[in-house]
Amino acid sequence: MRAVIQRVSKASVRVNGRTTGQIDHGLVVLLGIRADDSVKDLQWLADKTVHLRIFDDDDGKMNISLADIGGEMLIISQFTLYGDCRKGRRPGYSTSAPPEIAEPLYQQFIEEVKNHRIKVATGTFRASMEIALVNDGPVTLLLDSEKTF
User: Fold this and answer.
1) Full-model pTM
2) Which residue ranges form the domains of the chain, and what is each CATH number?
């Protein structure tokens, strides 16, 4: 499981011209699910994301987590995080989970984050979405449950 995490001062997602989710101060998480990901992967990633110390303390150092600040999280499913661009000019997605595997794991990830008492907003699984955000910092990080980076 992979995530692109962006610290934001606000963010929203629209589907078919309608806002389906919005947050204030917190994180936007673009979530990619691999075909062989498990509940263990999503639990690790949810815990890591919620407790990652990437918000400024009183001294301006990134030393406080989303849980510490009572921040919010906008979670967007994004299978293209497993796009393989090493050959040719068209990405291959053979390691991305098919929808029937990815959607339940995506929903479980959302619930796992909520279990940490985080307010969660979401996009719509398999929909074309427009995401607007104000990146705070900017702070953008990559996480992978396989710890490949």
Assistant:
1) 0.96
2) 2-142 (3.50.80.10)
